[in-house]
Amino acid sequence: MSLVNLSHVCSHLQNASLARLGLTSIPLSKLHLGLAIHLQKQGFLATVNLGGPSPPAKLLPPSESAFTTAALKSPSVLEEVEKVTQENRATRRLWLGMKYWDGEPVLRKMKMESKPTKRIWLNSLELGNIVRGRDAQFVRGMRGVGECLFVSTDQGIMEARECVERKIGGMVLCRVW
Question: Which SUPFAM superfamilies match (predicted)?
Answer without folding.
Answer: Ribosomal protein S8
